User: Fold this.
Amino acid sequence: MQSPCGFGVQENCLTCVWREKRTFCNLAGAALRHLQRITSLSVYPAGTALYAEGKPSRQVFILCNGRAKIFTSSREHSVVMFKMAHPGEVLGLEAVLCHQPYQETSELLDPCQVKAINRRALLDFLEHHNPPAVHAALQLAANSRLAREQIRRIGLSVSGTQKLARLLMSWAKTRGMKGVAAESFEAPYTHEGIAQMIGTTRETVTRVLSRLKQQNIITMKDNTFVINDFDYLKRLAHE
Assistant:
């Protein structure tokens, strides 16, 4: 079925053309049929908040396609972005499993198909099927690692240059193969989004990126970063 948002809606998990590329949903047999029974499908436009920080956690959301911004904000309206979620991720997982309020806000950056699962159904599903339980544990571990990196970037970095250098090195490592950092990678973030990830201002991000480009440390084209001098960037990250 074609959605008003411009993509073909995948109503049934059993016949979904995206499933094999989605870690949590790439199931078979009884587990896949069980998943289909307990999910509720919705299609949302960009800008929709799936859940909000501080609200009761009643369900998780499987991001079938598109991207979502995961962030927290203060009473003074300053924003820190934890991550950009990608297709196949389960959003709100930590809060629902711990039966605690959501600790962040999830806002869709693209028109998205989302499948929701309520808490009781999720717990029963994970209890009866090992593969999705393992996938959930791996996602929680990845989120924990990202949180530690975020603390290190924001709390232990002394300058905007060091914060940004650490973020670029982190992206290069996570997008590399077999432990080798990637020389080029896509990072579809605005300067404002990058600033929210490292706890600084958009103006600082723009200034530091401009200086790194002028020094030929990095090259940027559209959403693609190319690191020309890993050693220099590493020194900036650890200075």
